[in-house]
Amino acid sequence: MITIFGTLLVVSAVDFKPWGDPLQPASVHVSPRYIERTLEETGVPNVVTSVLADYRGYDTLFETSVIFTAGIVVIILLRRQTDGKGTG
Question: Is the model's pTM score more than 0.90?
Answer without folding.
Answer: no
